[in-house]
Amino acid sequence: MGGWEFHGAVPRLGQPRPSTAPATGSSASGLKSDAPTPDTTNTPSSSSAAGQPRCFELVSPMNPYSRRPVPCHLEKTVKKPLARPKNASLNGKMLKSAAGSSVPRGLDVTLTCRAKNEEICNKARSSFEMASAIIGNVLVLNEPLTVNATIYPFCAENSDLCSKEFQLLGGASPARTMLRKDDDGFYRIYPQSLVKQLNHTQHPSYGSFDISAEFNADGNFWFQEDGAIKKGQSDFLFVVVHEMIHGLGFTTSWADYINKIPSAITPNPLSPDADPLDTDTFRFDGFFENAFDRHLVQVPSMVPLSNLTRVLNRFNGGIGTVYKDQIEFINKLTQSPEYEMAARAFNLSTTRGSLGFLPSDSVSGNDVVLMETNLKSGFVQGSSISHVEYQTYSNTPDFLMRYLQDPGTLLQQDIEGSGNYAGGAIGPKLIRCLQTLGYRINKNPQRIAMYQIQSESGADSMTALRGYASWHASLAAVAAVTLAALL
Hints:
Helix content: 10-25%
Oligomer: single chain
Largest sheet: 5 strands, antiparallel
Number of strands: 28
Mean pLDDT: 78
Number of helices: 10
Low-confidence stretches: 5-40, 45-50, 88-100, 273-277, 451-487
Shape: globular
Strand content: 15-25%
Structural class: alpha+beta
Radius of gyration: 22 Å
Distance between the termini: 24 Å
Number of domains: 1
């Protein structure tokens, strides 16, 4: 059984189960991963009177660490009568599987489009409709996920998203997150979209949206209405589906919250006060992992990465220790012997094949899904660990969640070239990861019928997908003397 964390005061942040799946350390099939004995080493400080659960709202999808606390309270879960899910449609016509059956709708998208060319807005709507079918074809959702999507010219409206080296195409993240106590004693950060699937008798109040996303109106996108995809173009639908998976919670909280140039990483250091200019005292509430992080293991030992979190939470007196300011907190942390665990985690995050996601139904170490720890630039916040290993999963059914792809090729070519898996863009290993997080899976996904089109090379392929060539926004570099409590 899991529970919700209560706190008397809502914290201020700076910039950045009962789950249906077994604990990372074991599964019904008996695979062991040296799981620790459950404890409450990251239980938030009890110094505040019991009050409201802790909820956080995303500030910018292009920076998943930029979150602010929002008031929320526990509400009784109203059981809705089971109903046939609404069907996905494209341009007003019901989407069908290749066998002719209807496809459930997975997303309810509220789209704000500020592109100068209205045609882009209309094409984008069609892509979101197809993405809804792709998600609904694989996940069995209590209700469609709500998405707040905005399309606008990045450079014209936000210079921070402009780069001469590469073009940012878009980003997405859980719109609202909340702390939840897992049955291994750890409080973790859960996305609202996942909490809705766990069937609690009560839950923290929900925000208006499950996922928040932004896309670049000036991106060199290909849409299914455009004809042949050209070299250098990126399929908008591929970008959308990839980012929606991040919005479901496929993302880590491990990052460097202290150093401008990453050299040591920890989970999110939640605190009631993370303003670097504030002179008030700083209370350490613990390092908080994302729900995703519970299932990260060191390879090949299969030891949970949470073991390092447990040690980090004990530094200098542990949870509830009060410091005169952030600088004292940082100094005590970086000078403590426990900080070696942060350096160790950093080394793991920059060594190929050293970290993986262990699905709950694993029977051997061969089932681990290797995460991206092999970037040339070292640890990149937003890319490292939050994606699958590029080289390992290229040309496999699990190509979708790589951090980078080549433009100019239809996603359907990836699907067909890797075995034409029934789940389409969402491969078998990714499905196991989502199931482990707590999402219900359609055991018999259908191949969605799509229109035929030719790529620039002339090869026939079915429309819908592919062409994601984007670096993810890595905007969360934090000044050396500033601790940013990020989600």
